[in-house]
């Protein structure tokens, strides 16, 4: 009935083989499937579930909101409060809500083009910004997993104005701006890439991008859909821009700020955002944008996302990272663990990864074997080597111990695959 049996390609098991589990309920750090099996969840809905599943206070707030109706198509209080929360935590001065990260980056790029009167966009290979036509060139996430270099259905004209550069490569950025600087509307980057596995920006790289854009009159669009309120309390920007003293011109958010509901946003400099309809001429709209249930879930989640939550995520991440490292080393599997704030992932059988070419040097069969051994032991990792592993505030000692206990056998399974493929 549904193409590939899934409603988003990353959910399929194409990259690792086998059949996806059908999940019927989730609580805290745990998923339960239709056959009654339980798994420690290291996907967390691909990022949003920062507090864990079925958090009692989020559930109560959502239930109360639903009791007052589900969508009005008029301004509401929770969307104003959520906007205030985003502005308080990040660099953005003004914000517009949408329903998905894809919509957020698509709208931000239109705004950048409308504001600058320019048409070119710069992106990095391996960065994924949603299934926006202009950005489906060398994207990460599902496209990498499925080995699709772009996609049929996107006309060449849609990507002809998109320049794709290697990540973490200052010389490539400088050269691109030297040649096309006066035509570039914006440079878009994942604030810290998580869609080719976690590949952190090298120290100062985001600041360099912001400065290069400023020098050429282009806008710097930082995509924090994944990193926002996840990498740190202030997203990736809290780890670099806030410390180094620069701000992006535009930022996109999603995932955590929706608290498990379809909510996303783009925001940025007040003078740029003023170009958006109805204040300015750049058109953008949405029937369910700022939906009261979604914004209530997001607002409640962010209010509960205290510094203690991020301390816990860091500690839990350290436990898993250390145990994975020890198990893989003991089994003789070469690997690298890479982090951006509280986000991390593990690359099998390759050197440290600084760009998409490096991510593609992973030993994919080793990950597939590791994934299935973990799943058999009751730990649900992302079914792709090109994804971040997500934890939550609900990953307590019991859940972490279940992960740690599953690792030695999974590492052995990965090692055997290395033997047979080398
Ligand atoms: N930008 C980034 C960095 C993402 O990771 C994603 C989704 O994974 C998107 C944009 C697209 O968001 P959505 O899936 O909500 O459309």
Characterization of this structure:
This protein has 14 helices and 13 strands. The model has no long low-confidence stretch (mean pLDDT 95). The chain has 422 residues and is of the alpha/beta class. The strands form 3 sheets. The chain has a 7-stranded mixed sheet, with helices on both faces. It has a 4-stranded mixed sheet with strand order 1-2-3-13. The chain has a two-stranded antiparallel ribbon with strand order 11-12. Helix 2 runs parallel beside helix 10, helix 6 packs parallel to helix 7 and helix 11 (307-331) packs parallel to helix 14 (397-421). It has 2 domains: 3-55 and 306-421, Alpha-Beta Complex (Aspartate Aminotransferase, domain 1); 56-304, Type I PLP-dependent aspartate aminotransferase-like (Major domain) (Aspartate Aminotransferase, domain 2, 3-Layer(aba) Sandwich). The longest helix is centred in the C-terminal third of the chain and has 25 residues, at 307-331. Pyridoxal-5'-phosphate is lined by residues 46, 100-102, 105, 128-130, 141, 190, 195, 223, 225-226, 254, 264.
């Amino acid at each position: 009935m549904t193409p590939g049996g899934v409603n988003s390609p990353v959910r399929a098991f194409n990259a690792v083989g086998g059949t996806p589990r059908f999940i019927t309920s989730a609580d805290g750090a745990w998923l339960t499937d239709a056959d009654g099996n339980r798994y420690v969840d290291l996907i967390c809905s691909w990022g949003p579930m920062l507090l864990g599943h079925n958090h009692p206070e989020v559930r109560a707030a959502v239930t109360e909101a639903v009791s007052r109706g589900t969508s009005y198509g008029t301004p509401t209080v929770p969307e104003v409060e959520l906007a205030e929360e985003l502005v308080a935590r990040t660099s953005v001065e003004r914000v517009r809500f949408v329903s998905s990260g894809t919509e957020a980056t698509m709208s931000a790029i239109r705004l950048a083009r409308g504001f600058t009167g320019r048409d070119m966009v710069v992106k990095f290979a391996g960065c994924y910004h949603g299934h926006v036509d202009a950005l489906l060139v060398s994207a990460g996430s599902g496209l990498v997993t499925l080995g699709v270099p772009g996609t049929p259905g996107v006309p060449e004209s849609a990507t002809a104005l998109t320049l794709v550069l290697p990540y973490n490569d200052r010389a490539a950025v400088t050269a691109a701006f030297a040649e096309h600087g006066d035509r570039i509307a914006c440079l878009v980057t994942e604030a810290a890439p998580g869609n080719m596995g976690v590949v952190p920006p090298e120290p100062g790289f985001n600041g360099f991008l912001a400065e290069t854009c400023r020098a050429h009159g282009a806008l710097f669009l930082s995509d924090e859909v994944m990193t926002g309120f996840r990498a740190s309390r202030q997203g990736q920007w809290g780890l670099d821009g806030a410390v180094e003293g620069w701000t992006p011109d535009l930022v996109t958010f999603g995932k955590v700020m929706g608290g498990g509901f379809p909510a996303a946003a783009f925001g940025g400099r007040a003078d740029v955002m003023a170009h958006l309809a109805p204040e300015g001429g750049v058109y953008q709209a949405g029937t369910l944008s700022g939906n009261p249930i979604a914004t209530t879930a997001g607002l409640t989640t962010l209010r509960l996302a205290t510094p203690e939550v991020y301390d816990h995520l860091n500690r839990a991440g350290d436990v898993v990272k250390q145990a994975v490292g020890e198990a893989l080393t003991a089994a003789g599997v070469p690997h690298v663990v890479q982090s951006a704030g509280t986000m991390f992932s593990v690359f099998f059988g390759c050197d440290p990864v600084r760009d998409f070419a490096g991510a593609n040097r992973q030993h994919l069969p080793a990950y597939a074997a590791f994934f299935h051994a973990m799943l058999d032991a009751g730990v649900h990792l992302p079914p792709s080597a090109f994804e971040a592993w997500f934890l939550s505030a609900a990953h307590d000692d019991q859940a972490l111990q279940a992960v740690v206990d599953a690792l030695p056998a999974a590492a052995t399974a990965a090692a055997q695959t290395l033997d047979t493929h080398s």
